[in-house]
Design goal:
Number of strands: 7
CATH architecture: 3-Layer(aba) Sandwich
Number of helices: 8
Strand content: 5-15%
Strand order of the largest sheet: 3-2-1-4-7-6-5
Number of domains: 1
Radius of gyration: 18 Å
C-alpha cells in the first residue's frame, strides 16, 4: 500500500484492523512478542496509522482483537475511547513512516533469540542457504543494530534507531527487540519471523561451539528470489492456519 495521502475508510479499514490483530496473534503465538509487549501498525493516511493499542482489559498480543487496533495520528491522538492508550513506542512507527514513504507497515517485537544474540555480540552470519532463503539474504545484506537498549518513546530516539537502520527493512535493537517494515502486513510480519529464524540458528551454533563458513558466492548464486507470493503470502497463510489449529484464530470480519 503506497502512501497516497488519502484516508483509508469503511470496509478496507475494518479489513486492515482485523489483519493487524491477526498479525499480533501470530507474533505472540510464535514467541516473538511475550505477554503484552510489541505492536504492529499500518499506514491509513498521510499522518494516520492503525496500531495495536493497550486497553483496560489487556490480555497480551496472542489474544489481540480488532477492538484493540485503533486509528491514531502521528502524535498519538485519535480513536482511544474506552480507556485505550497508544503504545509508548509509537515513535518507532511514526518516525519510520514519516521517512520511508515506500513502507506502509511497521512491526516491533521482542524475540528472545534476537535479544540474546545481540547482547552476546553473536553476529547474524549467512551460514545457511536454501533452508530459509529470505533469512539468508537478510544476513548477506548484514542486519543493522541499534546499540542503545532504551524505550524508544521519543522521536529523537526513533531517529537514532532509523540512522542505524539505514535503508534496511529490518533492525536489531540491542537488549530490546526488533523493528521490521514492509509494503504489506504479511511482508513486515514474515520479515520479523525470518529475522527470528536467523537469530535462532546462529544462537544454536554458538551454543554448540560451531562456526561454519559463510555461504560461498557460488551457492548464493543458486538462491533465487521466489517472489512475494511464495516468500510472504504463503508463509502468512501457513501461520494463519496454524492459529486456527491452536484455537487462536479470529472470526472473519463482518464487512
Amino acid at each position: 500500500m503506497a502512501e497516497t495521502g488519502l484516508d483509508v475508510t469503511g470496509h478496507e479499514l475494518e479489513a486492515l484492523r482485523h489483519k493487524v490483530a491477526v498479525a499480533c496473534r501470530i507474533l505472540g503465538a510464535r514467541g516473538l512478542a511475550e505477554d503484552v509487549l510489541g505492536h504492529v501498525s499500518v499506514r491509513v493516511g498521510r499522518d494516520r496509522v492503525l496500531v495495536r493499542c493497550r486497553g483496560p482489559r489487556e490480555r497480551g498480543l496472542t489474544f489481540t482483537t480488532p477492538e484493540d487496533v485503533r486509528v491514531v495520528d502521528f502524535d498519538g491522538e485519535g480513536d482511544l475511547e474506552g480507556g485505550y492508550a497508544a503504545p509508548n513506542e509509537l515513535p518507532i512507527h511514526t518516525e519510520l513512516l514519516r521517512r520511508r514513504h515506500d513502507m506502509s507497515v511497521v512491526v516491533h517485537a521482542h524475540p528472545p533469540a534476537v535479544v540474546v544474540t545481540g547482547l552476546a555480540d553473536i553476529e547474524l552470519r549467512p551460514v545457511f542457504g536454501a533452508y530459509n532463503m529470505p533469512a539468508a539474504r537478510m544476513a548477506l545484506d548484514v542486519v543493522p543494530v541499534f546499540r542503545r537498549s532504551v524505550l524508544i518513546r521519543r522521536a529523537e530516539l526513533a531517529q537514532e534507531m532509523l540512522a542505524a537502520m539505514g535503508s534496511s527493512t529490518v533492525c536489531v535493537l540491542r537488549g530490546h527487540g526488533v523493528t521490521t517494515c514492509g509494503e504489506s502486513i504479511e511482508q513486515a510480519v514474515v520479515r520479523a519471523l525470518n529475522l527470528d529464524v536467523l537469530a535462532r540458528i546462529n544462537l544454536d551454533l554458538a551454543r554448540v561451539g560451531a562456526k561454519p563458513d559463510v555461504l560461498p558466492p557460488e551457492d548464493v548464486a543458486e538462491l533465487p528470489d521466489l517472489g512475494g507470493n511464495f516468500n510472504d503470502i504463503n508463509v502468512w497463510r501457513f501461520h494463519v492456519n496454524r492459529l486456527e489449529q491452536e484455537g487462536l484464530a479470529l472470526p472473519a470480519p463482518e464487512l
